[in-house]
C-alpha cells in the first residue's frame, strides 16, 4: 500500500531557552523533574497538495515557581499528499499521528540537544509520546 504523503522537509523553525540568572539556573537544575512537556500541532495548506505542520514543544514548570526556565521549540514539517481526495478524518490522522510518528526521533533529538546545551546535561525524556493516544483523547 502506497503511503498517503511524503515528507519533503523537516526543520527547526524556532528554538528558545530563557533562564533569567544563575540563581534560576541552579534552582531549575535541581527541580527539572517537576517540569512537563506540552505539545501543540498546527497545520496550514501551502499549495499543490503541500501542508506545513508546526509541532510545538514547550517544557514548563508544573508548579509555577518564581525561578523557572522556559524551553520552547517549533519543529516544522512540510508534506506533500500523494492522493487527490483525502477526507478530513484521514487528513487529521496523517497530520496528528502518522507524520508525528515519522518525525518524532529527529524532533526529540533536537529538543534534547537544546535542553542539554542549555546546561541541563542529564535531562532525558522518559517515555516516547504516543500520538495515537493523544489523537484519541482529543476527539473524545
Write a compact overview of the structure shown.
The chain is an alpha+beta fold.
Task: Please characterize this protein's 3D structure.
The protein has a single domain (5-132), classed as Bacterial Protein-export protein SecB. Helix content is 35%, strand content 35%. The longest helix has 30 residues, at 88-117. By secondary structure, the chain is α+β, with helices and mostly antiparallel strands. A 4-stranded antiparallel β-sheet has the order 1-4-3-2, covered by helices on one side. It is elongated, with a radius of gyration of 17 Å. The protein contains 3 helices and 4 strands; from the N terminus they run βαβββαα.
Strand order of the largest sheet: 1-4-3-2
Strand segment count = 4
The profile of the biggest β sheet is: 4 strands, antiparallel
User: What proportion of the residues form beta strands (DSSP E)?
Assistant: 35-45%
Determine the CATH topology.
Bacterial Protein-export protein SecB
Rounded mean pLDDT is 92
CATH class: Alpha Beta
Task: Provide the CATH architecture.
Answer: Roll
CATH homologous superfamily assignment: SecB-like
Radius of gyration: 17 Å
Features:
alpha+beta; Bacterial Protein-export protein SecB; single chain; 3 helices; 140 residues
Chain-wise SSE layout:
Elements: E1 5-18, H1 22-31, E2 35-45, E3 50-61, E4 70-81, H2 88-117, H3 131-139
Antiparallel strand pairs: 1-4, 2-3, 3-4
Amino acid at each position: 500500500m502506497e503511503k498517503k504523503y511524503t515528507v519533503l522537509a523537516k526543520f527547526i523553525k524556532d528554538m528558545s531557552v530563557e533562564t533569567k540568572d544563575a540563581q534560576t539556573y541552579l534552582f531549575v537544575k535541581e527541580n527539572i523533574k517537576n517540569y512537563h512537556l506540552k505539545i501543540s500541532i498546527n497545520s496550514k495548506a501551502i499549495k499543490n497538495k503541500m501542508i506545513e505542520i508546526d509541532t510545538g514543544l514547550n517544557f514548563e514548570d508544573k508548579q509555577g515557581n518564581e525561578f523557572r526556565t522556559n524551553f520552547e521549540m517549533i519543529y516544522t514539517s512540510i508534506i506533500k499528499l500523494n492522493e487527490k481526495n483525502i477526507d478530513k478524518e484521514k487528513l487529521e490522522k496523517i497530520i496528528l499521528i502518522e507524520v508525528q510518528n515519522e518525525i518524532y526521533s529527529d524532533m526529540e533529538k533536537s529538543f534534547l540537544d537544546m535542553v542539554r546545551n542549555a546546561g541541563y546535561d542529564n535531562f532525558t525524556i522518559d517515555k516516547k509520546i504516543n500520538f495515537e493516544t493523544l489523537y484519541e483523547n482529543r476527539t473524545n
